[in-house]
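Sequence design from tokenized structure. All designs in this work follow the same two-part layout: the structure record, then the generated sequence. An example of the structure record is given first.
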């Protein structure tokens, strides 16, 4: 067992080691990390150094290069992902969902197979899929519908947290005042933490899914959220995800992208119908 790093030089990330980490992020998760992010990456690796009680970043990179390196990859990807999110983030998407997409989806489902499927494809710690569930609940779906929300992410740590549905009061307080009651928060054993209501939680299924690998679902989905994740990918990766998203969305279904992720050039399968809101043709 090694002691922890004590000298600043132990934390250094050499160009060669940066290339290793950036190469893993690109090849395993599609995430592009540019050289100016080196200090941020070094900071994130500290979590792994502490957990493994390693003395230096160089030692950690040797572990990655060793025959045992493959076993470390999921934990490395967990620290490399950026998980920033919030309840009702980019609120106009959630407002559109409640006022337009959900009512139309329900009417259609009642005439067809009663099935409603929604996918939050980079769900992070759960604020996005629970915000979707809050809008579903508020829009009073007909009881006869078979309605599921699938929430996926590559990062197993955030998925565990999302599944627990427990948030600090501070995080919940940041939600817009008029929407906060829709989360139907419940007390937990701790005075600082609250839980999203059971009526919302029951709509959700959490699964690990890497957007740049195979997607096991057959769909079709009625609604897909793919927000604030494609900013980390290069052009061909983004295009391939949008192509596959188009195949999985039913005609007339909706795709919500993050505010800085508009489809450029326009995609033939999608019509832009609002700010970063697209409709499958
Ligand atoms: C910035 S968060 C966005 C969360 C939420 N969609 C939102 O807009 O608030 C980005 C999420 O994408 C996930 N992610 C990054 N690369 C991914 C990949 N290849 N496959 C699936 N999820 C990925 C990260 O783990 C992270 O939780």
């Amino acid at each position: 067992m090694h002691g922890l790093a004590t000298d600043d030089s132990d934390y250094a990330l050499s160009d060669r080691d940066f290339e290793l980490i950036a190469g893993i992020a690109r090849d395993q998760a599609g995430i592009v990390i540019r050289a100016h992010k080196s200090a941020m990456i070094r900071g994130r690796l500290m979590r792994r150094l502490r957990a493994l009680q390693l003395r230096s970043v160089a030692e950690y990179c040797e572990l990655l290069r060793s025959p045992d390196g493959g076993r470390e990859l999921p934990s490395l990807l967990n620290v490399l992902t950026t998980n920033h999110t919030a309840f009702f983030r980019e609120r106009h998407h959630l407002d559109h969902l409640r006022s337009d997409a959900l009512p139309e989806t329900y009417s259609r489902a009642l005439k067809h197979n009663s099935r409603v499927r929604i996918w939050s494809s980079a769900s992070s710690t759960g604020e996005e899929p629970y915000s979707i569930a809050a809008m579903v609940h508020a829009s009073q779906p007909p009881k006869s519908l078979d309605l599921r929300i699938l929430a996926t992410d590559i990062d197993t740590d955030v998925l565990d947290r999302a599944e627990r549905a427990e948030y600090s009061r501070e995080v919940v307080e940041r939600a817009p005042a008029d929407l906060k009651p829709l989360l139907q928060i419940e007390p937990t054993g701790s005075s600082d933490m609250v839980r999203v209501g059971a009526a919302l939680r029951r709509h959700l299924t959490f699964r690990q899914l890497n957007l740049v690998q195979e997607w096991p679902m057959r769909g079709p989905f009625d609604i897909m959220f793919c927000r604030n994740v494609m900013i980390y990918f290069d052009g061909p990766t983004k295009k391939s995800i949008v192509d596959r998203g188009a195949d999985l969305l039913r005609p007339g279904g909706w795709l919500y992208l993050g505010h800085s992720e508009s489809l450029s050039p326009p995609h033939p399968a999608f019509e832009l119908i609002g700010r970063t809101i697209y409709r499958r043709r």
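The radius of gyration is 21 Å. We note this feature because it recurs in several other targets discussed in the main text.
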